[in-house]
């Protein structure tokens, strides 16, 4: 008899139409960017996440004098859901690193069963899309993935109008945010079927003042001063000055490398510094050769070759600049 009743119930469940998934309005706003660690390839933010959905089983009839909204902490709300055996749209941040620090996690429940969940948090997120090939003229992509734990057959994300975006005072000085947008996608990280994913993406480019004033302009001045040394007749002093310039470019290289991870490719700044190493090393070798010619009584030949060196030096840098442009921007 029990087996017959079970078979009848199974047939009824198969014949009945499948329940419609619950639509979940979701929005994410980044209020502050507390740090971008390009060496660790991550960024930290203070953000606000809001999730709204309708659950008729949570509807209530307000008693006289009671507001039409009830406010819960997350712990008390989860107890209510456990008592009524109700599922709720649990989320996780897919590209989060480390723990999340919550300032508050509050739930507002309307009399008709509409639930509004709001959390304000501080977290660090991975930035695997970093590409430093054009450093320091690079444009980077940052994103946050908010994933639903349950499949779309239970909860389906929809974007909350007017909530998502970036705050007016992000607090990040090195980067300029150029554009931000949101989109809906799917994933299958936790379920066999597809589950909803909400994505907030923004692009940012660097403030170039630091790199222009601290690195590029001083390097160009050193290159220019090094060219003026060709007009000195003392080859020994020219060797000393060229050797000092080589040490300066090595110092620039260490300054840049301390800000970036150990990459498997060459950046624009790497290519620029390697080019300066190579040309400066040739200058040192050339001056040593001219000094040896002078010591061996071939001063006239040394002066003729020196004229070619004076014109070849700026041409070498112009050719190097053209090569960099073709390699990285063409």
Give an account of the 3D structure.
This protein is of the alpha+beta class and 330 residues long. It has two domains: 22-206, Neurotransmitter-gated ion-channel ligand-binding domain (Acetylcholine Binding Protein, Chain: A), CATH 2.70.170.10; 209-329, Up-down Bundle (Methane Monooxygenase Hydroxylase, Chain G, domain 1). The protein contains six helices and eleven strands. It has helices spanning 2-15, 74-84, 209-228, 235-257, 268-295, 299-328; strands spanning 22-37, 42-54, 69-73, 91-93, 96-110, 114-126, 139-151, 155-159, 165-166, 175-187, 195-206. The strands form two sheets. Strands 1, 2, 3, 5, 6, 8 and 9 form a seven-stranded mixed β-sheet that branches. Strands 4-7-11-10 form a four-stranded antiparallel β-sheet, with no helix packed on it. A hairpin with a 7-residue loop joins strand 10 (175-187) and strand 11 (195-206). Helix 4 packs antiparallel against helix 5 and helix 5 packs antiparallel against helix 6.
